Amino acid sequence: MSQIQHAVPIAVQRCVICGFDFGTGLDDCVTHATELPELLQETLGKVDSAAVRHRLAPWEWSMLEYGAHLGEVIPWYLGRVQQVLDEDRPQLQPMDWTIEAEVGEYRRRSVQRVCADVDQACRSLIAMINSLDDDHLRREGIGSDGSPRTIEVLLTRADHEIIHHERDLRRALDRLQG
Ligand SMILES: [Zn+2]
Fold first, then answer.
1. Which domains does the chain have, with CATH numbers?
2. Which of 11, 83, 85, 98 shows the smallest number of beta carbons within 10 Å?
3. Using one digit for the tens of pLDDT, what is the confidence trace for 37-70?
4. Measured in angstroms, how far is the CA atom of residue 3 from the centroid of ligand 1?
5. Cα(158) to centroid of ligand 1, in Å?
6. 3-state secondary structure 128-162
7. What is the distance in A from the centroid of ligand 1 to the CA of 165?
8. Single pTM value for the model
9. Distance 1 CA to ligand 1 centre (A)
10. How many C-beta atoms lie closer than 10 Å to residue 59's C-beta?
């Protein structure tokens, strides 16, 4: 008896929190990555050193932590993309970013370092996108949930990180200034 194929594609097209459209193209990702470094520098520069490290709620990161996370999550996605380019349908490993933020002491970093990391990460993201053709974008790895994940999906997820956390940064700034 043949096995019934019951897996369906993920139907969620938009993030319910930030509204990011997962059907958006990688051109938008390049735009977002081009704009992020300046936007981050401006946003973090609007509050003092204590406020930038302040968590408004125990379950939320401070502005600096969101920035530090962006500086690490973008290269992390690029590492996954490189793995899918180098290997035949590799099994991709998940990452616990709550632990990373603690172990990496995001809150103790300087604003200057966080901005430099994000600047470098965005440059690498843009360079990666510009280096790929359609065949590359269709290559697949296996996600932690066992489903195939194309390079295009991995890059779109990196784009979502940018948009989602820009919203977190704006909201934190509004409340700190409010
Ligand atoms: Zn989102």
1. 26-177 (1.20.120.450)
2. 11
3. 999 999 999 999 999 999 999 899 999 999 999 9
4. 35
5. 11
6. HHHHCCHHHHHCEEECCCCCEEEHHHHHHHHHHHH
7. 8
8. 0.91
9. 41
10. 7
